[in-house]
Amino acid sequence: MILAKSQASLPKGHGKVFKLWFLSQKYKEKIMKNLKNFLDKSVDEVKKVHKSISKVTFDTLEKVDPIKKQVNTVKNVHDTIVDKTYETIHEVNGKLNIADDKKPVE
After folding, report:
1. Is 74 domain-assigned?
2. Count of domains in the chain?
3. What is the residue range of 46's domain?
4. Domain membership flag for residue 51
5. What is the pLDDT of residues 42-63, one digit of tens each?
6. Per residue in 3-14, pLDDT tens?
7. Spatial separation of the C-alpha atoms in residues 97 and 29, rounded to whole Å
């Protein structure tokens, strides 16, 4: 009822913006927690696929004796870069935050 009365005083078309602002303020922590969890799980799944594809490639190339040592070196560099990249993505995700504005975004 209070929400309906306050919406009545808003200019036409602003009721939806007010609802979104109200909900985002009320459920901010829950929304952010769910979003962060979703992103973390998604990043982990992408990393698994990335590593499985590269594993097939490197395992195949390591069977070629003349280049085995070089392949192992490249694989180690690749894996280090991949691990650091996904670690950084997780760190950025952990720092995500919705702006804590006191007014709705127009």
Report:
1. yes
2. 1
3. 32-106
4. yes
5. 999 999 999 999 999 999 999 9
6. 444 445 555 655
7. 9
Residues with Cβ within 8 Å of 17's Cβ and at least 6 positions away in sequence, in order, are 104, 105, 106
Instruction: Collect contacts of 70-78 with beta carbons under 8 A, ≥24 apart.
Output: 78/54
What pTM was estimated for this model as a whole? 0.61
The pLDDT value recorded for residue 43 is: 94
Amino acid of residue 30: K
SS (H, E, C) the chain: CHHHHHHHCCCCCCHHHHHHHHHHHHCHHHHHHHHHHHHHHHHHHHHHHHHHHHHHHHHHHHCCHHHHHHHHHHHHHHHHHHHHHHHHHHHHHHCCCCCCCCCCCC
Can you read off the two tokens belonging to residue 74? 């490249």
- What does the pLDDT look like over 70-97, one tens digit per residue? 999 999 999 999 999 999 999 988 887 6
Q: Per the structure block, which two tokens stand in for 75? A: 């694989």
